[in-house]
Protein 1
Amino acid sequence: MKVYLVGGAIRDKLLGLEPKEKDWVVVGSTPNEMKENGFKQVGKDFPVFIHPKSGEEYALARTERKSGHGYTGFEFNTDSSVTLEEDLERRDLTINAIAEDEFGNLIDPFKGQEDITNKKLRHVSDAFSEDPLRVLRLARFKVKFSDFSIVPETVLKVREIVNSGELNHLTGERIWLELYKSDDPFEFHKELASLGAAETIGADFIYNPVKHKEMMQGLKPVSKLHKLACFIYAENISSEGKIKIPNEYRDLSELFEQTYNVLNYEPDIDKYEALIDLVNKLDIRKTERLNNFLECLENKSRVKFLINFIERIKSFKLKKDDQNKSNNEIVQIVKNSHRKIAQDYLRQYLDTQQN
């Protein structure tokens, strides 16, 4: 049994980057031997094992054979006779097909180091065109390494995948995962478009540079949540579309419809109704979503103005006698109270600004 460090960890070290995670491949072993050595198996059909101390993933060396559609349409061979070179050959790009042994020696049968030096993204073998997921991975790596270029031969392989219709078999969850992993969802989408793959992935995956530019003038994403929510809104990705987006990102993206109203509202004693309407549309009951939205607005003075007003609205409580009134009466009481709160708040705010 031999163990090798593989993939991104080697690539990043050669590029002078700090590896985020380590992946290991095990050659000449079996599931039983791995378990006897204390490893915990996490996959049955595709044996992956967790190291008992480090918690890192160790996968048995494998080969693949296309047997169906999509990125899951493969049969795996993890026999102990599979060599390291055979395992590296089934990987996507040469820069990801480099291994390192226990002595620090590099095994690089597909000249990945040369492509790193020359800043090239190149497929390892013809098997690249069998897996539609590799189109998304290629786009993601192009964004990650923006100074790299995709070699013409690999672009041709992408066209084979697009023309084959295999992209249609990608699940919405998997598309989202690649989008999530990308350093910049906007650039990721642009790369997919340049490869001719964006529209094939989903009809709702349409790039809108004008809307993106306009919106980003008022937003400054400060986390992956904010950036992805901005992307969902700017690209107008439908909740009925193919891409399966988690609710927290979807909910936040819906708030961006109110971005221009927030940024363009000017405090004025006669604009109390507009202020109330704005706060109602923000739905202040969803506190975490609202905080995420306000956090990514660049105009912090406007954010502070809104937060202080929202706190006043939240502090309003119905009087005990009013709680027993009809729904229509309660609604009117709340409206009148909010109107008074907004008028008083604006008056005090404007007085402070003048002084």
Note: The mean pLDDT is 89.
Protein 2
Amino acid sequence: MKRTALRFITTTGAIALAIGLAGCASGGSAGSGDGGSAAPAEDLTVGVAMPTETSERWINDGDAVKSQLEEAGYEVDLQFANDDIPTQQQQIEQMVTKGADILIVASIDGTALASQLEAAAAKGIPVIAYDRLINGTENVDFYVTFDNYEVGVQQATSLLQGLGYLDAEGNETDLSDKKIIELFAGSPDDNNTGFFFDGAMDTLKPFIDDGRLTVGSGQTSMDQVATLRWDGATAQKRMEDLLTSTYGGGSKPLHGVLSPYDGISRGIITALQNAGYGDSIEDGLPVVSGQDAEIASVKLINDGVQFATIFKDTRKLATEAVKAAEAYAEGGEPEANDTETYDNGEKVVPSYLLESDIVVKDNITSLLVDSDYWTADEVASGVAE
């Protein structure tokens, strides 16, 4: 049976939404008009804006959000923007014009949607930022994400485990060997990138400070190590350039690479393999971290090529986004477990943070297969069925 709730309307002299929803939004985003009346209860449409279909992760997110919303009874308008900012702006504008009642937005550029969200606010449409904070606007009502600083901590922890400085439980070993690493970060226009990088660098800092770790190229600032649009080809090219400029084309030792995302990791690994560092970690390939548990990288981990990834269960993230949408539809407020961390420059956005896990070869089955995220056959083939 289709879920029903108050739908927002615009009438002459009143741009508003149902009274119950007006009270739930923060910063004047939803219900920012000057009073109004509610239409008869009818079906709600949720607009879902995802950044791209070039990443397996975002395809899974879009599918998970859509399926869970439809299971709850909502109409869903799901759009992917192919990593093109004007396309995403246009898609959100069309969702607002076509009468979406709630928006769930995973932005490409967290600073590029202010005018679109202002239009949504004028119609009293609540906006839920999905995994990427939308910055520079008060017209974002809620944020669902993972603990992004902790994700960065986990990325660096996995690198330190692979290098032998930490054991499987995260405790320091007695290894005092000096090793050389390189650093990669995500896209500078993604708000999460800074949290990932800060968490990772805070974790690596003691090892860099005491000389056990050295960044061979000396490139340690965000502007030096960022990877626009999280693009694997861009990361591969930078790794190739680093190998030429710093490592004699592959003749000098390199022990590990901090990578913030599996697509970037695969580009890095390709460059390292092409430079002759070996086909696997056992053969001398540097330890490479990752994120998102993409199936191609899970296979690489299983095969001893990539050392680790961070598993962010997008099914759980989708569930929290749907819960937030339901709360707004029912005239309430979503449950936040963080009301301090995520300042978008205009307001602190109430947020719900989820936990993530480090995946290495030994726990692929327990974390990914037993939870039905991937099957054993998919892990073996590296292809989603």
Note: Confidence is low (pLDDT under 50) at residues 1-42.
Protein 3
Amino acid sequence: MADHGQVSGPVWWSEALHDPWRDPYAPAVIVAMPQAAGPELEPIDRLRAPTGRRPVGLGVLLAVAVVTALIAGGLGGTLGYVFAVRAGEAGGTGLSGSQTTAPLTQRPPETVAGVAKKVLPSVVTLRIKAGAGTSLGSGFVVSADGYAVTNNHVVEGGEGSVTITFSDATTAAATVVGSDPESDLAVVKINKGGLTPVEFGDSDALQVGDPVVAVGAPLALSNTVTYGIVSALDRPIRTDDSSGGARYYAAIQTDAAVNQGNSGGPLFDGAGRVVGVNSVIGSLAEDQEHAGNVGLAFAIPINQAKRVAEDIINTGKARRTVIGAQLDSSHRAGGARLASVETGGPAASAGLRSGDVITKIGVGVVAEPWDLIALVRKYPPGATVAVEYTRDGGRQTSRVTLAADAK
């Protein structure tokens, strides 16, 4: 730093005078920076008019000031009149403290505010007594007579009834109808009628980049609305449950902020139709207790969730879609290697056999063995989908008609 002279006491040097974090109560120092050679400056009380020119008289200055004021006043009056006339023609009232626009409570239905207003009455917060504490999650109403969908891990281990809180802060009791740990879905029945169910969308119609809105109770903050986009589709997800089993689904990946408490809550498209069930977040934390949103959230596609929920309501359990083969879990060379094929099952009927390595099913890429399970679960039993596989180093294709398991 250049030497700008000696100053006693604590100071801020001139380089920091424009610092936005500068302490406004710190003493200020005006530093005269070195100047190029030139005429010596004089104190302001000794400035004189340049030689050869007469000083401007006071009368002339007053005259100029008067003329300037008259011009400014006339121009201001003219502009004020023009603006007033135009405001009157447009039906405006000027700065009267009121507005003639639509009420602030109204928003176009395609906006995030419009979507939130439409869907909030259908979103609920669930509280379930679990051991010495309470499990909290989100859910959404799927029928006017009180059925609601949430995650299995929200109600898992719960004791007794469920307490439901609606967006208007009213409450009702509910009971768990049934759940499917492997798909991480559950259905509860709310003891209240006349409810507002969600409108279902088509998760198969989503595209990367589509806007989405997540609604739920992250960190126990009910009626929280977050916004983002679909950042990936058919993302295979496998997570472990508390009983030692595993959950599988081909997820909708989004960057909408989702945290603990959003579990089981709905993911809506830009038209306010539910397209997914928020279930898992990506986090840099090593344990779930300290996990937080880092822009990676995963939702169960609503086409799968709706099918499972209907199975639970109608039969008390969910059907699982299978391909009819056992996988080689030790295979790590990409794809899913078939350890064995069930006689007469879907894979065998499609011409697949032991040792084949499935690399793609439908549009989903199979990178790990369990990816195949997640991607198969996306489809309903009876669906026919294309498969790509390798056999003896060669690439082959076939079509397989999936089936329901025998459980």
Note: The first helix runs from residue 58 to 89.
